[in-house]
């Protein structure tokens, strides 16, 4: 897994000057403080704002450019690129979108993306999973059922989906794990099934149902079971009126 979910759960923070600038500007662009198409303040002003050297600022700008968020232009300045150019598979960019009031449209698109690839991965797993992969799936089902708190449940849930991707044996699936982490984080903050013992048990069982049809080699049933779990999660979140991703975890 990446660090998106674990960092959010454990309260990881900014650790150095470079990260301070990246976080500050990244959050600002996502929140609209620096709108799409606008020019960022000049280097001198930004260096003063963040209390960093020009060297640190330049490195931070390179990081943001690599995420597709800004475009430096000679004799013009640094312009904020349109959101469609931003790398939403990037861990930090996703985290910035989830840190604050989360747009319902953004959440809907996140779950649409999950539906576009996770059921297919479950279908491949049904065809390719070996004994070790199946044991890992069932171990995470047990971990979800026995989780003592919402954090443990979320991490076991994420690991289950990662194990499905491992069993699918397609390297490209590993590049989209951050999208699943983002969805888990939203679910935990807004409407975690682990908050209610009955819901927790039901969710753990539905994941076990996925493992069962994968173990039985039933591709179509695996696809349908995975889609049902994702749609259930979206239904639970979409019915929750709270949209703040800063809700207590």
TrEMBL record:
Q: Where is the HTH gntR-type domain?
A: 15-83
Q: Name one Pfam family in it.
A: FCD
Q: Which InterPro entries match?
A: GntR_C, TF_FadR/GntR_C, Tscrpt_reg_HTH_GntR, WH-like_DNA-bd_sf, WH_DNA-bd_sf
Domain of life, per the record?
Answer: Bacteria
A GO term, aspect molecular function = DNA-binding transcription factor activity
Q: Which key words tag this protein in UniProt?
A: DNA-binding, Transcription, Transcription regulation
Q: Does the keyword DNA-binding apply?
A: yes
Stored Gene3D superfamilies: GntR ligand-binding domain-like (1.20.120.530), Winged helix-like DNA-binding domain superfamily/Winged helix DNA-binding domain (1.10.10.10)
Show the PANTHER family listed in the entry: GNTR FAMILY REGULATORY PROTEIN, TRANSCRIPTIONAL REGULATOR, GNTR FAMILY
> What is the protein name for this chain?
DNA-binding transcriptional regulator, FadR family
